[in-house]
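Hi all, posting the design record for the shared folder.

TITLE: backbone redesign
STEP: 1 of 1
STRUCTURE INPUT:
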């Protein structure tokens, strides 16, 4: 018994039933309670009896705290908090920001969409607290980047119970965003709403939704009310950029995307904004030059896309669109110049557009075409097409040829052999000698070799496709070319003589020149009389072929 008492004093019972030794003088250890899983004695094989966590697991959570779960419960737990009646605005903002932060990749976006985040955020767009509206619009914009999120926008919060929806009727998401854009005075709300609309238009399905649900009409109303004034703050400038990106997308990719942009003076407002914008492209409220350039570029893109419709072109031309857009041909940023050329290209489809381009644009277009590698290949090719389209107006064709007469390679690229008709007026004796000299050099180049040039038959036609040689084309289309070449012998002897040699290889021009000299209608300089006379005799090869 004494030994038993001593043993009890020097040992302590271990949790597993064993014993351990304790040093001399140590006090008896406190009893260690086993874990719950080891205390339970399960006698039933039913799952509900064997599940170890059937007790309350949410009791420790507080309604005024934003709590997160793990795995599949991550977003459902946050959605439960967003749909809890009476939740404080600060907690709603925390939950919405948590969702926005976690939705940085497509996997998390998919989980959030499957957890009805779109419906919960849509319901909060009409919340009375402004910060809640801001964060709800941000979440909508994040979800709209995926097709699954965009597909839920027409449903909105219609599947939620009336108790959660409140006094505002349930409905689709886009009309609520449009209402916020027009009625909310908070600048950040407008910016996030515009960003959400822009996110909707990243693909064709979203573009069509924006058109079908009348959002384009609301955007047009907002822009007509705020433009042409330059936005005074950065959020409003960013809002303008997102809205212009939205309109540029729907007008290009959606069916009927431009129907709500006409007859509301929107094009006139956009042109007024471009006229007021600083020439260097730096909008005063923007911190980065990249965003400022993007605003100008998107405004020009909207004009370009609207110009694909006759109504849009006529509205732009009535508002002096060619004059304003021409001012951006020398903008310091490549993308802005490219968008300006595209806008002018569609304006040139109208006769009045060609006349306005003749008045305002030849100098800017000439500089762009001579910039070489400084411009994109797309800009260069579009500029060539623009010149060809405007050249359907003869006055522009002659004026532009005069401006670039020293660039034979450019004339060949734009007009091909038809350049002879464009530069023929420059051969006349009334023109300045330096212009006549360059024109004779150009004529010599094209008369010595055929060039296909313009394959879409912009004026007057592509000679080589119709079986015409360059000499035959010059003889038929260039009035008084023989008179002009003979008179040019005094100021540009070698190239003028080369032109006459090329022309006299053909029978009809040779006979015409002989008749002109015989009748005294042209006067050959005495120094060149013998050389010109030798050109009038048939070549041996031609005589042999005729015999």
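Okay, here is what came back for every position:
SEQUENCE:
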């Amino acid at each position: 018994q004494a030994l038993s008492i001593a043993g009890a004093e020097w040992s302590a019972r271990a949790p597993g039933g064993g014993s351990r030794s304790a040093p001399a003088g140590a006090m008896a250890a406190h009893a260690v309670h086993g874990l719950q899983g080891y205390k339970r004695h399960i006698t039933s094989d039913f799952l509900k009896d064997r599940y170890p966590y059937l007790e309350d697991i949410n009791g420790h959570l507080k309604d005024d705290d934003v709590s997160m779960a793990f795995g599949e419960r991550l977003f459902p737990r946050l959605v439960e908090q967003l749909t809890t009646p009476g939740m404080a605005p600060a907690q709603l903002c925390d939950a919405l920001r948590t969702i926005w932060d976690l939705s940085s990749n497509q996997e998390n976006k998919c989980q959030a969409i499957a957890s009805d985040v779109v419906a919960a955020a849509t319901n909060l767009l009409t919340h009375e607290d402004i910060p809640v509206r801001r964060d709800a619009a941000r979440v909508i914009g994040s979800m709209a980047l995926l097709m699954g999120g965009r597909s839920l926008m027409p449903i909105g919060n219609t599947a939620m119970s009336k108790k959660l929806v409140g006094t505002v009727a349930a409905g689709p998401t886009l009309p609520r965003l449009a209402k916020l854009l027009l009625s909310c005075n908070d600048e950040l709300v407008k910016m996030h709403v515009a960003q959400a609309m822009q996110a909707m238009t990243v693909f064709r399905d979203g573009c069509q939704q924006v058109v079908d649900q009348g959002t384009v009409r609301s955007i047009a109303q907002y822009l007509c009310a705020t433009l042409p004034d330059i936005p005074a703050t950065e959020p409003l400038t960013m809002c303008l950029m997102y809205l212009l990106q939205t309109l540029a997308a729907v007008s290009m990719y959606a069916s009927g995307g431009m129907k709500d942009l006409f007859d509301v003076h929107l094009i006139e407002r956009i042109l007024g904004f471009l006229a007021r914008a600083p020439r260097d492209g730096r909008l005063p409220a923007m911190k980065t030059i990249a965003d400022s350039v993007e605003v100008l570029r998107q405004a020009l893109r909207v004009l370009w896309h609207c110009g694909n419709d006759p109504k849009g072109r006529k509205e732009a031309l009535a508002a002096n669109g060619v004059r304003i857009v021409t001012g951006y041909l020398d903008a310091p940023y490549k993308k802005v110049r490219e968008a300006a050329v595209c806008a002018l290209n569609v304006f040139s489809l109208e006769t009045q557009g060609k006349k306005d381009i003749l008045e305002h644009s030849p100098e800017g277009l000439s500089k762009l075409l001579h910039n070489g590698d400084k411009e994109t290949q797309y800009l260069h090719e579009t500029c060539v097409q623009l010149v060809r389209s405007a050249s359907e107006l003869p006055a522009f064709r002659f004026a532009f040829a005069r401006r670039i007469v020293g660039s034979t390679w450019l004339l060949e690229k734009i007009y091909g052999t038809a350049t002879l008709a464009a530069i023929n007026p420059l051969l006349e004796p009334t023109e300045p000698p330096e212009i006549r000299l360059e024109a004779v050099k150009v004529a010599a180049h094209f008369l010595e070799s055929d060039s296909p040039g313009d394959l879409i038959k912009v004026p007057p036609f592509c000679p080589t496709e119709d079986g015409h040689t360059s000499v035959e084309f010059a003889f038929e289309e260039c009035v008084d070319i023989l008179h002009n070449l003979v008179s040019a012998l005094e100021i540009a002897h070698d190239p003028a003589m080369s032109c006459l040699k090329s022309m006299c290889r053909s029978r009809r021009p040779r006979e015409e020149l002989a008749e002109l000299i015989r009748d005294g209608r042209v006067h050959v300089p005495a120094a060149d009389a013998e050389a010109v006379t030798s050109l009038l005799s048939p070549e041996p090869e031609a005589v042999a072929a005729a015999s």
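COMMENT: The longest strand covers residues 11-13.
Let me know if anyone wants the other runs.
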